[in-house]
């Protein structure tokens, strides 16, 4: 593969296949152009060249996944704590920490392993079968068994299974959009021979693997398979791993200073350490959490040193275990498990919303997306041509309503107006009164003549399949016109029915790029009359027409003024984003030339003349009905949508206006502002990086877009600190998918290479599903923020309790800890673990898509979260300490006993009771705080402000998330065994059963709610005043999408200041 040349075979030929004559290629491949390979020869070649499939990117690597579970700062802290515990013979504490480590590793490994397996399962072949000729006979085989030298047959609807050189063909065209980005089918010429350096898009004697046959048939010989195909070469280039070794800086002559080598190796080593600890790899949230882990590790070490220093660095085991416990209190041990499970659950939820996550690391990044760069065809639109309007001079304009099934002629209402398109202007595509299809044909000979051309000058076939849905075979343009004819029950099959045919096709003149017309001649089997039916480019058809039905059923001379009027209507239809064709016909009789027959078709120039102009038909790729609402929702969520398409600028502009990417009214924009909104790739690429950065805003529509244009757009957005998602389906989209922050591939129409380069795949190829993914990403980000706040507030409470608890010293001068090490691990893992998972399952807030994107700089740690963390942590620590003080000093005698950190004795009974009271209080606080975190601002008792259940609404709210509810109930229930079961209470948890102390716990719980609700009330007041001052609503965010263009347009240059991204 390293020296493989584009167009060459798996085993190099004297020249690339497109540069060889057909016979020469057959000879070099040692095959037979009539009978193909023998079965034995095919088997041997398959062993030699390998299967016809794209190689995987390494597969699932369990060891690498396992290493990732260990290689993070939080796990290293736990491992160190385990080692210290066992080193001082504190086997119970060491065993608990070991159990926590194993639980983290096992759950994390299996979750990530399942995610990797899902990624692998997405890889599929583009063509599952191939029609091959071996031993002189046809057979259908799996495409993976195809090999070099195989002779294959291709027909309309087939997917080309490998790169092939055409031997013979008839009207053969392929859709190479997945490979080259060319939106129209490419006509092939098997007789042509090209220069060796001819580009892939111009090799007209070759058909590429993954392209589809849209017209005609062909016989071809396979010259390259698997990774040696064009699609395979791009896949191989994408899989090249970036070197992890930093190159030393060099002088202009290529030499380098010796110190530069030392510098590069130092940087390489620090990069490796950073990758191991996760501080320089992954998404912004993962990097931030890795840095948080390093910070908490440092704080844990400092806390441990403080404990040792307070006890004069005593080497007694109880002092060391106190230091370990204080260090552990700062480590949210369950964070890794909860984060992994939350992401895995979000991944499964997204499958139900037509989104498959290939790279679980990109999931949380969706919430930070500020810009979406979307393709048009198949994403914002349905990806299939539809006949939308037709204009018949003597009648008026007929329009077809929107439908989700472009092949289904029974869907889509018919509207009619006498006004011509030029008289309507750029209005809605559904103007006029709605009428029935059957009634439209009544006493309407002009429409019937028009539909006959649409039906019979056409090779496409539209029919219902066995499942009851409609399918079509043929060229996309012809399919659209054939569906239009089928709406009026004028399908081609109806006239050519095998059992009772009404017409017989006697001649056919295929579309030619020179004449830009197609014609057929049909004979009526009853009357023996023949008719010519022609369609093509408007200007070419007008040149061939001499008559028309202009004001009524009478045929009149087609004057120059009439032709000018036709061109005006063509421009009016094109301005609505439609591709316009003209239709014409005429009777054909021997007096006007020899009688047509299959054996002796008359010359084309004798047929395509003196035609009667029948009308215009406008085709377009319709926007999905859900695209416009989805784009509007993106704008309300503070997300800009850019359309990058290969279409004509006029079509792109029209579709962009229809779906809301461009404002409906652009009349009040200056010429420069409107020009900046819509650019062609040529105009965009002509600008330097500096000129792009100087634009007030990057264009919202780029037409005639090439792959390198998409890459430049991503780079320009990144320089503006945007966080972008890029959609794509073709191989040519893969580079931009790979370098974007979130690459989104199409699951139905996308290539395997595009899917492999992407982070997520849309199973329905629908733009609205991108919004689903972003909503799910924001929901998950919100929930991660909730459980991180919950965990870290507990850590602060535990650490604060233990550090202040250093002041509680017994008669020997050693500190008596208010919480035992196992109690701390119990609260971190058991009490908090399940509720945190429950918080990860919370539904999305109603206004989740009416806020700005998440700030990448702040991430989950906004100022609000940081202040909440301190407030809740300090309040819980104060309440825990007051519990301990009340039992020991308020109702006890103040005796802290001797050796109460090690074992229970009668002298230590008060301390053990105080410790149990503190443990129960902290456990209750942790459980109640989980419910309070369901909404970080609203009161727990009034999460639904509009509810009439003033005193009972909270009961419905806690029951809504059943996992969280039962997790909290389990937390309450599991307290009792730890307190009252002998041995477990004294030897493991270092506390004893309590009785009257429960009164203290209830009072502390009441005070906890009082403090948290008071803090939330203060926040609500603050944010209400702040919102009123800024005046930022979802409507403002929607307007801000176009504000840069309007602001640039204004004479005074003033615009409303955009809100900060991290507003919430």
Automatic annotation (TrEMBL):
Pfam families: Cation_ATPase, Cation_ATPase_C, Cation_ATPase_N, E1-E2_ATPase. Gene3D superfamilies: Calcium-transporting ATPase, cytoplasmic domain N, Calcium-transporting ATPase, cytoplasmic transduction domain A, Calcium-transporting ATPase, transmembrane domain, HAD superfamily/HAD-like. Its cofactor is Mg(2+). It catalyses: K(+)(in) + ATP + H2O = K(+)(out) + ADP + phosphate + H(+); Na(+)(in) + ATP + H2O = Na(+)(out) + ADP + phosphate + H(+). GO terms for cellular component: plasma membrane. The keyword Cytoplasm does not apply. Coiled coil: none annotated. Residues 16-90 form the Cation-transporting P-type ATPase N-terminal domain. The chain crosses the membrane at residues 70-88, 94-113, 292-313, 319-346, 787-808, 814-834, 870-892, 912-934, 963-984, 996-1015. The keyword Acetylation does not apply. SMART domains: Cation_ATPase_N. Residues 596-606 have a biased composition (Basic and acidic residues). GO terms for biological process: potassium ion transport. One of its GO terms (molecular function) is ATP hydrolysis activity. Keywords: ATP-binding, Cell membrane, Ion transport, Magnesium, Membrane, Metal-binding, Nucleotide-binding, Potassium, Potassium transport, Sodium, Sodium transport, Translocase, Transmembrane, Transmembrane helix, Transport. It comes from the Eukaryota. Belongs to the cation transport ATPase (P-type) (TC 3.A.3) family. Type IID subfamily. This is P-type Na(+) transporter. The gene is ENA5.
